Amino acid sequence: MLLNKEQIESIQNRNVTYVKKFAVLDRDYDFNFISDLVEENYLKVVSHTSIGDLKDVFQIKKVSNIKKEFKVFFDFLTKLFKYERYENDEVDLFFSFVSQVGNSHVDIEDVFIIGLKGTTIYRVYDNENKDYNIEKGDMIFIPRGKKHKVLGMNPRIVASIGFYGKKLNG
Q: How much is the pTM?
């Protein structure tokens, strides 16, 4: 995992921060991976709309203790940014089978998104609207309270690491 001094300071200052090639991911994160993960661990897949078809965005919650790499990401970010442990802090997977556009929203937690498969654009509404292109191994930090929108350009999988508690260093 690679973060330079400027990126660390940007995150500490609660700025949206994009990191190209944050992690080298050797595993092929595909829909067979998702299927095996769900089946082997009896996980529940949550749909984010009431439509219930394959155009939905799906979520698998709390995967940090299931696959080593997710635990490593979680522990690294927790320790580096000194987050106070909160019961809802966790790694979730989001995926979609087709390109789609989500609604603009604001998260109540700090979120680190790591691309696992496909291309996802995160549009952040700030002083100027800015798009961040996330691909496999890339990461974006979006601080709580920052309005953003997700545009899945093709079938995609991302890991979302959310921290609800406060940072001990700020």
A: 0.94
